[in-house]
Design brief:
heterodimer; A: 114 residues; mainly beta; seven-stranded mixed β-sheet; four-stranded antiparallel β-sheet; B: 111 residues; six-stranded mixed β-sheet; five-stranded antiparallel β-sheet; globular
Chain lengths: 114, 111
């Protein structure tokens, strides 16, 4: 079974630009969560999607948005990039419909804003 | 909202010794407590988890203990090996489709 795939692996963007990151979950998984990882901050929860619906979101500004498609693939978008948005963005999928289960992470997309 | 504190941030042990990482949480509704290991260049991977109706769980050299009254849980690694060197994250889930992670512990196992 293929794992969680995130594309691209690396991105360099300029302040003010926008960026879209992609995540393909494990086949059969309908829940996709996104996290921002920065040194010393651990993983900060961005949002979670299930069957194209956002079920929860973290405390990030509205510049961070996401969506999920009918095939469970998900994208996150960051508009008007700031230097502080430089981070590793991780996507995780799970097969949970309501209960708490293991999350399977991709390798992440490293975003650098210059 | 839920808050998770993890200690220590860095831990260095000699090969063969034990390592203990502790986490505390704030939301008493939390009911799922996974631990993840992240190696360089990779995403986190689940190593063990525990649910609120269990006090302790063991899997070979790894064990997790949970104290719901005190709202803390711990990861214990015995007979550490160099390949245990990585960053470890505790996490808490309240069932609200949101998993909150600790800040991580960087474990160094010296051969």
């Amino acid at each position: 079974k293929a794992g969680v795939t995130q594309t691209p692996r690396y991105l360099i963007k300029t302040r003010g630009q926008q960026v879209t990151l992609s995540c393909s979950p494990i086949s059969g998984h309908r829940s996709v969560s996104w996290y921002q990882q920065t040194p010393g901050q651990g993983l900060q929860f961005l949002f979670e999607y299930f069957s194209e619906t956002q079920r929860n979101k973290g405390n990030f500004p509205g510049r961070f948005s996401g969506r999920q498609f009918s095939n469970s693939r998900s994208e996150m978008n960051v508009s008007t990039l700031e230097l502080g948005d430089s981070a590793l963005y991780l996507c995780a999928s799970s097969d949970r419909t309501g209960g708490n289960t293991e999350a399977f992470f991709g390798q992440g997309t490293r975003l650098t804003v210059v | 909202g839920e808050n998770v504190e993890q200690h220590p941030s860095t831990l260095s042990v000699q090969e063969g010794d034990s390592a203990v990482i502790k986490c505390t949480y704030s939301d008493s509704a939390s009911n799922y407590f996974p631990w993840y290991k992240q190696e360089l260049g990779k995403g986190p991977q689940l190593i063990i988890d525990i649910r609120s109706n269990v006090g302790e769980k063991k899997d070979q050299r790894i064990a997790v203990t949970l104290n719901k009254t005190a709202k803390h849980f711990s990861l214990h690694i015995t007979e550490t090996q160099p390949e245990d060197s990585a960053v470890y994250f505790c996490a808490v889930d309240t069932g609200g489709f949101k998993t909150i992670f600790g800040a991580g512990t960087r474990l160094f196992v010296k051969a």
